[in-house]
Amino acid sequence: MFKKVVIRQVRYNFLLAHTYITDGPEDYEVEARTPATFRCNAVADESLHLEIFWLKNDQLIDFEGEPRFVKSSDYSLTIAKTIELDSGTYTCLAKTELDEASAKAQLTVQDVPYPPTMKDVQCHTKDATINWIPMGDNRAPILYYIIQYNTSFTPEEWKDAYSHVPSAEMTYNVPMSPWANYTFRVIAVNKIGSSAPSPHSEVCSTLPEVPHKNPDNVKGEGDRPDNLVVTWTPMPQIEHNAPGFKYRVYWKRDIAGKDYEYQEILDYKQDRLVVPNQPSFKQYRIKVIAVNELGEANVAPQDLIGYSGESEPEQAPTNFTLLVIQGPTTALLSWDPVPLTSVKGHFKGYKIKTWSETSLISKEIQVQGGNSKALVSNFDPYTKNYAQVYVFNERYNGPPSETLSFDTPEGVPGEMQDLEAIPLGSSAFLLKWEKPDKPNGILTGYNIYYAEVDSSMKVDQPVPRNPQITEANRKRAKLGGLKSGTKYRIYISATTVAGESKRFFIERQTKPMGFHKPSEPSFEWDIQKDSLSAAVRVHWIPNEDGNPGSHFFVKYKKKGEPQYLTTPPEKNEDFLIVPGLETATIYDFVVTSVDGLHQTDSEPQEVSTYDVDGPIIRAKENVATAGWFIGMMLAIAFLLLVLIIVCIFKRNRGGKYAVHEREQANGRHDYPDEGGFHEYSQP
């Protein structure tokens, strides 16, 4: 609502524009303790000084004295942490020295209701009449009331007697239990929340009576083979209705002519009775009665069926048979059921345990009810599997049947978990992988697929690599013919005669178009017998630590010839076969890595085709330059040098013969006269 006060005045024969409000405050309804903001903008003649003031209920707001009230630089008024007393009429006053304009808005701050006042309580034999007076809704209408009570049994705990008493009511009847002291209070509720509780009422006391109910949730189920356990939900004191409260527990075998036995439980908090020395898994009749000093409950107890504790089943299923193998993991089994009397408990069904030669960890399935046939689908493919069946009750498994064994056919391999893609130049990847952990048969090869991934992460339809891998022992392959600087999703799956495994994938991006020479490659080779000639299978080994290049070709020539022959570039594989070579000939081979317009040659290797009828010949390291050969020759030379030094040392010691020392050690010897020249004999 806008109000304009206009003052016309002419100064120096000029007509001035009126002051008016362009954006006035609007009525506001807000929840207490939340902020409220009024906005106001005005326009005045540009020759006049304009000021904006805020008023509450026609009184100028003192912003220094009311720190919760803030006027911002845009003239808006904000009230922080509103309270109900902030409700009222707020005025935006735009004023110049000649005229003024104003606009008003209403603020309504809503809060939870004021606590009701307890008027009185009228105590009767079995109920009480509560009277209260509402004390104000705090600008949000009362929706309903909550009547609560507590008793001398739980004086600190208030419970709802009624949680939605209509707002028009201010008198209500509340039932009371016998032998209890009650007090009451009332809470008002509006859309903001609940009021504080009213003051509590005077005390209402009731007279004792017999219990009005018996315990709930009575059950009988042994927890050992030789006992019966009767359980129930304990009754709170408010349900005792008189002093001397206790439980009377009855039980008997459910056979003709048996009488009830009973035992009294004096602790009202107790929730069970264990009856020992009972036969295993027998049917009983049980009941639990609430009793106080005035007598038993005034309602009949439930007569329920219970059982003593279960024990282990006594018999194993017989005639355990393999009916048919339906697949690598599935077989149909059957057995003859056991007599129910041998189960010694609640019959729940049968369990089938399986394991295999490749996995000693057993698996188990449950066959519910009385079925004596099951389709089992957790066997391991392509191995010998074992199975046993046994009956079970709620607590125990029975003895197992005879062990059944059979062989399963091949299945599809398990999903592969390892794939690596190394960029080769700007248009290819070198793929490396490991065999699946679960081949589930004889591997026949691998299938590789690839698909482009665009900038929005949309994946194109996968394209199969051509050709696919048909060698089970192969663990690497080249994926070529790709776009440079493009993200691809690369899939791999293993195959057996049963089919293809689930595809495992990674996402990798090819490199941008290269401008650098590839790093020096290396290669391995095999001799292969052709019909009338020899052939060499060359395996390219790109330099993965540098720039490997995107593809390769082979140069070769006879030993001693000047000119190399060149194969076509191989862009799809990391190997090629050079056919049509002469037998019994030595060739020089070089592998050339290519990336765009750049090429790098490997070191040449000699390839001999002399023994093409023998076993496959792998490329061997040149013995003359091999590190192990050089090291061995150095070691032999060192040992020869040591041996020569020892011999020279021994020779020098042997040239000086100490006669005197030897005679001292061995004594002087007289030799017999053998004739000859006696001039040289001893005197």
TrEMBL record:
The compartments listed are: Membrane
Q: What is its main location?
A: membrane
Q: Where is the composition biased (Basic and acidic residues)?
A: 210-223
Recorded hits in PROSITE patterns, A to Z, give: FN3, IG_LIKE
**Chain ranges of the Fibronectin type-III domain:** 112-209, 214-311, 316-411, 412-514, 517-615
What is the topology of this protein in the membrane according to its UniProt annotation? Single-pass type I membrane protein
Chain residue ranges for the region called Disordered: 203-223
Q: Which GO terms describe its biological process?
A: anatomical structure morphogenesis; cell differentiation; cell-cell adhesion
Domain Ig-like: start-end pairs = 19-108
Q: Name one Pfam family in it.
A: fn3
Coiled coil regions in record: none
- Organism superkingdom: Eukaryota
Q: Where are the transmembrane segments?
A: 626-649
Give the keywords, sorted.
Disulfide bond, Membrane, Repeat, Transmembrane, Transmembrane helix
A single cellular component GO annotation: membrane
| The name this protein goes by in its record | Neuroglian
- Which organism is the protein's source? Rhamnusium bicolor
